[in-house]
Specification:
The chain is mainly alpha-helical. It has six helices and no strands. The chain has a domain of 72 residues.
Amino acid sequence: MNRPPSMIDSSLLKTSAAPFGSAAAIVLVALLALLYAAWDGVAYAVSMWRMLEYSYYIPPLIVFFIWQRKHQLAAEPFVGAWAGAATVLFAAQQVSAQLGPLVPD
């Protein structure tokens, strides 16, 4: 059957989603919302972080260590709990609420 070029074959749209795609999207949106809500506190923390010369080496080292063990991490089954994620987000909110008043006007 000849179809016009504007028609989309529905079989092309059937792709398997990543196993944690929706969970990762939810966590990403939550982290972005937290960052937006606590932007002044985050900016102040980064300005304080700039005072320490060695602190710029920490994030690249963390990324390197994770990259170095990427095969071991990929082989581990992902077992997580939403209660743990909620606890971490709640703790981050509490910390940002405590740091918020410290931001100078």
